[in-house]
Write a sequence for this structure.
């Protein structure tokens, strides 16, 4: 049976904790300076109330089995660094998307994003039995596209006029995927890159 983690995932540079109300202050603090919100179809964390609403929505989606949101925290001091989630869960077809990923400015261009994605991928393929993990990003977000390509995700194409992003911008979405057939090589390369034990 295809079943994704709702418990935490732990790495060397990041811990993925299931989202909870207790994360609201930290998410608000780190989320207000993230440039990533411009590319997402959801509003940014511009106030404490917005952060509370964002967490409440994530909890409701988890309760309905539609998404599983995680907060990325620092392993030494517990500081909130960002968030990511499983969404578009297709249990019948053993597929899932990893998305709504963002990091505070201080944590961008660090090992955090790579290791967080590694942990989510590893769980999806090795514990849940996924056949496919997909990602999508705004066609304007070249930094995200390069990061997905460095992970080893394969670019599959562009869905034109796919979503409405912040400010009413009608975005084209670039789709990427990693399959169970790709995972052994992707894992090998990421493990070497991060120098993590297998």
């Amino acid at each position: 049976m295809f079943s994704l983690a709702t418990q935490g995932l732990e790495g060397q540079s990041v811990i993925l904790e299931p989202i909870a109300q207790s994360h609201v202050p930290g998410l608000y603090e780190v989320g207000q300076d993230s440039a990533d919100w411009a590319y997402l179809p959801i509003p940014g964390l511009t106030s404490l109330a917005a952060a509370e609403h964002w967490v409440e929505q994530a909890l409701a989606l988890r309760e309905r089995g539609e998404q599983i949101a995680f907060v990325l925290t620092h392993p030494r001091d517990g500081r909130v660094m960002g968030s990511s989630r499983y969404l578009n869960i297709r249990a019948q077809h053993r597929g899932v998307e990893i998305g709504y990923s963002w990091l505070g400015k201080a944590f961008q261009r660090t090992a955090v994003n790579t290791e967080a994605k590694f942990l989510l991928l590893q769980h999806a393929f090795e514990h849940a039995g996924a056949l496919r993990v997909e990602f999508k990003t705004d066609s304007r977000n070249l930094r995200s596209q390069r990061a997905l390509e460095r992970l080893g995700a394969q670019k599959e194409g562009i869905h034109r006029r796919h979503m409405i992003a912040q400010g009413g911008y009608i975005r084209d979405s670039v789709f990427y995927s990693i399959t169970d057939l790709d995972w052994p090589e992707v894992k090998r390369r990421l493990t070497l890159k991060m120098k993590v034990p297998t």
About this structure: The longest strand covers residues 80-90. The chain has one domain: 9-193. The mean pLDDT is 92.
